[in-house]
Amino acid sequence: MLNYIVRRVLYAIPTLIGVLLVTWFLFFKTASPEVIARRNLSSRAPTQAQIQSWIKGHGYDKPPLDQLQNSTLDMMRFRFGKSDATKEDILERVKKGVVPSFTIGFNSFVATVFFAVIFAAIAAYFRGTYVDTMTTVICVIGMSLVYMIYIIGFQFLFCKILKLGPTWGFNPDENLIKYILIPTIIGVVAGLATEIRLYRTFLLEEINLDYVRTARAKGVAEPAVLLKHVLKNALIPIITNTVAVLPGLILGSLLLENFFGIPGLGSYLVEAISANDFTVVRAMVFLGTLLYIVGLILTDIAYALVDPRVRLS
Question: Looking at the chain, which terminus has fewer C-beta neighbours within 10 angstroms, N or C?
């Protein structure tokens, strides 16, 4: 397994470089350094001298290939530099934003998977009955609602009426639960319907296989068949489905953090995009790609743990 992990890490290096190349190409195609300088200079009508001074101070006056080479090497060493817009050290800002983003993302992820597996197992167990039908109807309704409805509705219900948390703001020195409770609930409820429907499909695919009929023929009770055999063998597609969530655990939810004023990495990325802050966007894209690659490696390892037939070589 160690050799496999080393190979995957080596394969990840060209992927990361490719992502940085694409990001760099899109940057020069969407906005020139002069445009970015005008947006970040405090003066409404900056002179050409001010613009050239800003460009030189941020290293955008060098040949593009030199800039690309230097920035790629810096990214690989996690030297993200400073923000074009705020002059803030990007790595320090990332360290501050990781805590609220990861706390909300991790809690939402664990709770969503836990409840989705339970409700999907109940729907699969009572397949074809009114319980299954009602679960499907509720899930379809939940999937039909856009994310903004959940945010606005839950803010009004839990923050305005029930007073369970603030509608805006974040203070790391106070009780963290106070600020992350409502965003976490929104994250769970908004994603629960889709996950239940998906996991129900995975379970139903396993229920109709030969080994399940054999277990039933041997007299194994239906709940035991569902939990001991079906759920265990349905873990691989469930694990695969959770890989895409990993970057979000760290990078945060863009809408949630913006609507609740949480200074996580999601809101940081939105601010950087609005300000055309290329250095921040490049760093966040790099981190997102890195996390996704790590998720793929962890997924392969999890395959080998849950299914003895899988071998990593």
Answer: C
pLDDT digits (tens, 9 = 90+) for 88-101: 899 999 998 888 88
pTM, full prediction: 0.82
- Reading phi first (left if > 0) and then psi (alpha if -120 to 50, else beta), residue 252 is in left
Identify any residues that bridge with 89 across adjacent strands, giving them in sequence order: 82
146-175 confidence digits (pLDDT tens): 888 999 999 999 988 988 888 888 887 777
**What's the per-residue H, E or C state across the chain?**
CHHHHHHHHHHHHHHHHHHHHHHHHHHHHHCCHHHHHHHHCCCCCCCHHHHHHHHHHCCCCCCHHHHHHHHHHHHHCCCCCECCCCCCEHHHHHHHHHHHHHHHHHHHHHHHHHHHHHHHHHHHHCCCCHHHHHHHHHHHHHHHCCHHHHHHHHHHHHHHHCCCCCCCCCCCCCCHHHHHHHHHHHHHHHHHHHHHHHHHHHHHHHHCCHHHHHHHHCCCCHHHHHHHHHHHHCHHHHHHHHHHHHHHHHHCCHHHHHHHCCCCHHHHHHHHHHCCCHHHHHHHHHHHHHHHHHHHHHHHHHHHHHCCCCCCC
Mean pLDDT across 13-18: 85
Tokens of 306: 């849950």
Rounded Cα gap, residues 18 and 76, in angstroms: 12
The residue with tokens 């005008």 is 38
d(CA 59, CA 231): 55
Q: How far is CA 248 from the centre of its chain?
A: 1
Q: Tell me what the mean pLDDT of segment 17-42 comes to.
A: 79
Question: Distance between CA 220 and CA 296 in Å, rounded?
Answer: 36
